[in-house]
Each structure stands twice: as C-alpha cells, then as structure tokens.
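Task card 7
Instruction: Convert sequence to structure tokens.
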Amino acid sequence: MLVGVLALQGDSREHIQLLESLGVSCLPVKSSSDLLALDGLIIPGGESTTISKLLEIFGLLEPIRDFAASKPVLGTCAGLILLSNTVEGLVSEQQLIGGLPISSSRNAYGGQLQSFEAEVTFSAGHQENVAFIRAPRILNPGPSEVLAKLGDEIVAVRHNNLFGATFHPEITGGTELHKLFLEFVKSAQS
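Output:
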C-alpha cells in the first residue's frame, strides 16, 4: 500500500511521520505523476486558499479531482474544506476539489488564538485528543456517514471513498482517523 500526502503547503510532514509510525509507505505529492502509483491520498491542513492556488499553479487540481472520483482521499482541516461541495466563507477565486456532499464553514471556531485541543469520540466509542487549529465546521453532513463527534457536533465524516475531518489528529499523535482511512484503502485494493 502506498499513500500520498499532498505536500504543497500545510502539515504534510506530520501526516507522513504518522503514516510511517503505522508502517505505511508514503510519498509526498508535488506533481500529477506522483498520483499514478498511489492507493490513497491525504490532503493536509494548512491554508485552504493557498493550497487551492498552488493546486492550480502545479497543475494538480484536475488530476486530484479525477483521483478523488474513484480512489480513497482523506482531507483534514483545510483538506476537508477543499473536498467539500459547499463552503461558507469561500474566497471568490478559491477552487474546490469537491466530491464530499457536505456543507462546511471556514475558520468557524475563530482565528489562531481560538485554536484548541479536545477529546473527540469516534463512532466505535474510541476517544482521542486532537487539535482544532483555525478549524472549519461541518454545517450539514448530507448523506455522509458520521465518523467522529465533539460533544454533539459532527467533526469527521465519510462518503463513499472520501473522508473529511475538521481537526488535526497528526499534531497530537491521534491515529484512529488514519487507521479508519487505511482500512478503507486496504479494502479498496482488493
């Protein structure tokens, strides 16, 4: 299994370190040719407007849209925004990858000073400490399966092959989201 991590901007290094700690081979993705050998892709947190611009500059927007149409993709924080079909507060020139039938809101908890860590509860009952950094909010999950909640608030979802989370598990060493994603990647291979 080979999982790519988009490495144009954001915390790709932390995702790569987490994947490696789970024994997964990974590749930093910087070009469309990098996508060819991948079984799955992670779009990390960072700044969604900047990532969007870089996807266009590097010619990756359409190739990633094509990839996400059939292969497993996990978006965390800014990655969730980019995968969302509808985004409140979207900057006018910002392009989305789309495909995840949710509505989200950018920086819904506030700016950098309102960032925090909290325990989220996964659908199987497992709890894990994760980081919310200028985090988006899932306003409407649509038909997506709920994977995790913060209290009553939905913070992680899956729809078909697309996974999205409003938080950063890779910063606090959380592995549950990545394990769920990797299980799906493995099942999609067979």
